[in-house]
Design brief:
alpha/beta; adenosine deaminase; eight-stranded parallel beta sheet; single chain; 8 strands; binds zinc ion
Amino acid sequence: MDRISLKEDVFPGPKVELHVHLNGCFRHETLFELAKKKNRPISGCAALADLKMRCIVREPKNLSHFLDAYELGYHYFAGDLEAIERLAYEFCEDSKHSNVIYSEVRYSPHRLVGVGFREKYDLQGLLDVTSQVIKGLKRGERDFGVRCKSILSGHSWLPELLSDLIKVCQNFRDDIVGIDLVSQEYSAEAPAVPLLVSLYGEAKRLGFGTTIHAGEASGPTAIQRAVEIYGTQRVGHGYHVVKDKTIYEKCLRDQVHFECCPWSSFLTGAVPFDIDTHPIKQFAMDGANFSINSDDTTITGYTLDGDYSLAHSWGLTQEQMKQTNLNAAKAAFLPEVEKKELIKQLMEAYKQS
Ligand SMILES: [Zn+2]
């Protein structure tokens, strides 16, 4: 797909975004500045343009290649409370440029603390970094009018860390709305992890929303497992569900919400560039419950508007793009009364456009 040929601003209306990683959305400029300030130059990146070249994935390869820039970012943001607050604040400002009115942004407090995975995590450290993100999001909300809630991301290969996250969630009940698993993809069709099943159940009982990355690198059974065994309410990506008629039809019937990310679906290599019908287009044709999200703007090199442009190039209509936002508002992890208010706000704006 040619980066230049897409029409810009195809959907200027208000948007709801549900799948976006804070650590995949840092500004290249900010990282460049931090590296200078810390006197820790980024190898091979003497100029900002070099850093952009390094972070932005232009050709699809695989998910781990796509995640290289994450590691680079953690190297500079992790453990730096001031930089973490700034990261969250700038996220709000950038969301405003795409006319996002409500966002659920996800991050891993364990990675933001910045010690190795095998070291012992101190709960206070997790609370400290989370409170810095929330502080930045609140400052951003005040200045830019973008309402943001947090989703905490855990890793399926370290299930015990999820119990820390549930404790962190309980400490910030007004600001954290759900949990996520980012690495289910790596264990593709592996059996469910009993500890994760029980912790997902606990998070739900405590009133938190649940989502899981599945069906991006992994196949339809990973989606089935996420929904039926972990009991997740939403699925991150989910493209490969279309490969299994039975699982797909069940997801359609149950109105499982898929958090789709057009550009990253290509750049991670999850969906081939030359596919006749992208699964997101298929979702739109079949009336599936899905939303359009940016995932990682640092890495795709596009804002959320770019994802709408790509979806539009596949033939998604204005009405379908409006519908994806209404879907997102309905699937948001907000209390019912706040969800209704958000839906009303979107409908009023869309009626006038
Ligand atoms: Zn993601």
